[in-house]
Amino acid sequence: ERGDVRDFVLWKAHKEGEPYWDFKIGGQDLPGRPGWHIECSAMARELLGLPFDIHTGGVDLRFPHHEDEIAQSKAGYGVDVAQFWCHNEFLEVEGEKMSKSKGNFFTLRDLMERDIDPIDIRFAMMSAHYGSVYNFTFAGIVAARKAKLRIQEYIYALYELSDSSFKNAEVSSLRQKVFKNLADDLHTPKALEEIFVFINTNPAVDLCSESRTELLAFFKELNDIFAVWEVGPRQEIKVEIPDNIVKLAEERWLAKKERRWADSDRLRDEVLKAGYVIKDTKDSFTVEKIS
Fold it and tell me: Are β-strands 276-280 and 285-289 bridged in parallel, bridged antiparallel, or unpaired?
């Protein structure tokens, strides 16, 4: 029986039909299995070594799981488990709790199959503090993509523009503010806010070459953490159009030339549904992937 409200099970006695280990301690045979919390203490010490830097987990694990993990690790090994504990809040979808019964349960693979860039999802989730409830919406992903591209275009501009004036930007101040917010319990929303305030008041076209060089070094350092931008010159990416899409586009062009308008519209819509758009020229056509 539990002798104190602070007690928790380290070793569960064997019950009929349950898996168990043969275990001896103090000359006693105690067949059974580990308590729920033991596995984390054992894996942390064996695989990571104690103490390690950051221990994460859902807010629902703060008590009792993590408190018990701390208690038994400190008692058993005599050292702390981790330097920092970060507990993320729950996820909502379109303002409702995510659940399979409601049909609003998405995995990352599900979203990628909808042609959503996982980097856009990463950036969207960075816009909320990990300790607050994150409400996933498809409109939010679109907004996050636009915000991410706004900074991306600024980075490209730092490479592409020539000096038109000689404004010195307070890049060191920006860096200090951004990393101060990241050091404050990983407050990514405030860190991003500082970046947007900066680029709004310091157009790339106005900056001198020294400021641009300093900014590029800052974005590279920050992107080693965030991994959401390309810190380099703009690259022209050639998109290969699948053969079946090209064939549909050719059939559509032929139908159009023969004035089979219903067939032309149907084939155009089929290409559009697959994520591509046909652009007619005077004597031909091109096919582009919808971004």
Answer: antiparallel
Q: What is the pLDDT of residues 35-84, one digit of tens each?
A: 889 999 999 999 999 999 999 999 999 999 999 999 999 999 999 999 99
Phi, psi at residue 244, to the nearest 5°?
Answer: -65, -30
Average pLDDT estimate for 219-229: 96
Measured CA to CA, the distance from residue 184 to residue 190 in angstroms comes to 10
- State how far the Cα of 110 lies from the Cα of 98, in Å rounded to an integer: 14
The reported pTM is: 0.73
Are the CB atoms for 130 and 89 separated by under 8 Å? yes
Dihedral of alpha carbons 44, 50, 53, 55, sign = positive
Q: Could you tell me if 278 and 285 are in contact, meaning their C-beta atoms sit under 8 angstroms apart? A: yes
Query: Residue 201: how many CB atoms within 10 A of its CB?
Result: 10
Specify the residue for token string 């275990």.
Answer: 23
Per the CB < 8 A criterion, the answer to whether 130 and 189 are in contact is no
pLDDT of residue 186: 95
Q: Which of 258, 250, 228 is nearest to 155 (CA)?
A: 228
User: How does 235-253 read in b/e, with b if 16+ C-beta sit within 10 Å?
Assistant: eeeeeeeeeebeebbebbb
- CA-CA distance, 218 to 209, in Å (whole number)? 14
Amino acid at 31: P
